[in-house]
Structures are given as C-alpha cells and as structure tokens.
Amino acid sequence: MAKQARRDISALVEKGKLETARIKTEGIISEDIHLELLELMELYAETLLARFALLDLPTREADISILPALCAIIHAAPRTELKELHVLREMLMAKFGREFAQDIMDNKDGCVPERVMNKLLVEAPDAKLVDLYIFEICKAYDVPFSSPHLPETKVEEDEEAEEQTEADGEKAANDTEGKPEAGPKSEKGTAKTIAEKADTAKAQDKPTQQDSAPARKKTDKEEYDSLEARFAALKRR
Fold first, then answer.
1. Bridge partners, 147 (sequence order)
2. Cα–Cα distances in angstroms (integers) from residue 40 to residues 52, 117, 169, in the given order
3. Reduced to 3 states, what is the DSSP secondary structure of residue 31?
4. Per-domain residue ranges for the chain?
5. How far is it, in rounded angstroms, from Cα 136 to Cα 155?
C-alpha cells in the first residue's frame, strides 16, 4: 500500500501535479509519524516487562526508573488502535490510581517524554519536510524534482553543472595535448653562457695594477738630504 502511494506521488510529479503530490505526501508523513509512535510504545512496554518486579511492589508510588514508560503508555495509548495497549493502560491506572493517571493525561510537570509528545502533535508537516519526502520518492523512481525549499536538490541543475564540468575537463585535456613542449636550449646559447661565466671569473681573479706595482725605491739625493736633516737636528740639541 505504501509502495503504491509512493509510486502514485512520483507519477503526479512527473505530470506536473505538484500540489496533489504534496497533499498525498503529507498523508505518508502522518503515517510514518504514527508508526514511530507505535515503536515507542513497544519500547516502553518492553521496559515495563523487563522491570515487572518494580510494578509488582505493594505501593501506589511508581518507581522513578519506570515512570517514563508509565507516563508514555497512559498518555499515548488512547491515540493508538492497539487493544493490547488499551488493556495495559487500564491495568496501570488501576494499579496507581485515577488521580495519578489524570496528572499524566494533563502532562503535569512535563512528565510525559518529549519524544512521545512530539509524535502526538496535530499539525501540518513543514513544507521543507514534505518536499524532502517528495525528492526521495522521485529519486527512487528516477523522476526529476526541484523545489525552492530544497535548493540543494535541484536535479536538473546538478546534471547540467556536471555535464559542463566534464566538457571543461575534456577541453583542458585537449589543450594540454596540443601544446608543444619546451625544447632544450641550443648549443650556441649554452656555449655563450659558459664563455661569459669564464670571463667574469677571470676578471675577479686578476689583481689590480695598483696592488701589483712594486714600491718605488728612494734616490741617493733623497737619502743624503734625509741624513743631513738628522745631523742638523743633532747639532741643535
């Protein structure tokens, strides 16, 4: 039944009847939420079964470890169609008293688990959630679907972008193949470079003319004048 409903939704989308598809999808979402509620009830029933010894205590005070399960079943069982849950609820109410049960029905102090309360909310599903359901359904049946609420799921645009990327990649590959590779330098250019480096090194190693010139020797006249000056200085002393 659910599979047929999903196939019908994909067919409606393919025909462009999006509003009808959304209404049908809201019904599927409500069914899914109800199934999740039943799964929670099963979990809490198993909890009570595993901790039955705490239920069998001769007291009307519920143990704190089983309190969430008690509150969930007493509060949510009337919203299900399972007769077994209804019977269990009556047994729990008889065990712990009508006043205790009334407080749970009123969700006094928020005693009912929040995840159970969320499943019991009566409201239209969010538009984004509805479109996300439709997208997943259409994806399963290869039907393109895009939504302003889900810009990341625009199938057609994604396909076009992918095709463009592939085309750009092929073009880049072709350009790379057609481009000539750089060849080695010519022998003439290499020889010229070596010669220039050799000339530079020779110029650096060549000593300057000033450094290599020997020191000039004094002439005889200059030596005689120097001695005469020294004798004159001695006579003055």
1. 150
2. 18, 11, 52
3. helix
4. 2-140
5. 11
Calculate Rg over the CA atoms of the chain: 49
CATH superfamily to which 2-140 belongs: Vacuolar protein sorting-associated protein Ist1 (1.20.1260.60)
Residue 162, H or E segment: helix 155-178
pTM across the whole model: 0.62
Sign of the torsion angle spanned by Cα atoms 89, 91, 96, 102: positive
Please, what is the end-to-end C-alpha distance for the chain in angstroms? 141
Give the pLDDT of residue 60: 85
Residue 86 and residue 68: Cα distance in Å, rounded?
17
- d(CA 151, CA 147) in angstroms, rounded, equals 6
Asked whether the beta carbons of 141 and 3 are under 8 A apart, the reply is no
Instruction: State pLDDT tens for residues 168-222.
Output: 666 666 665 555 544 444 444 544 554 555 555 455 544 444 444 444 445 556 6
CA distances from 69 to 28, 45, 52, 109, 180 (A): 27, 7, 12, 16, 77
Measured from the Cβ of residue 20, the count of other Cβ atoms closer than 10 Å reads 14
**Quick check: 136 and 21 in contact, CB under 8 A?**
no
The C-alpha atoms of residue 6 and residue 24 are separated, in whole angstroms, by 9
Q: What average pLDDT is seen over the chain?
A: 79
